[in-house]
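Record passed on underneath.
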Amino acid sequence: MFGFLKKHPQNKELDKIVQSIEVNAANNYKDAAQKSLLEFEEQLTQLEEAGRLSEKQKIYYHEKLSEFKQQMKNFTHKDQKPTWV
């Protein structure tokens, strides 16, 4: 009923990168969003290998990773029209 009150499992390092991806994607900074996505994937892998994530966190952040990858699948500059034309 109150989905907006539901807390997700938090990891401040990963949440900071997720926020960066969302802001860059929303502002159409495609290169920065893709760079942050790679950083997110690397950080997620490192934290998993170090055993610093719970199972709920792993599931949550892997879902986020999948969502971002799907969203950025066709993120290119080809579809952007130059503003001077």
User: Anything to note?
Assistant: The chain has a mean pLDDT of 84.
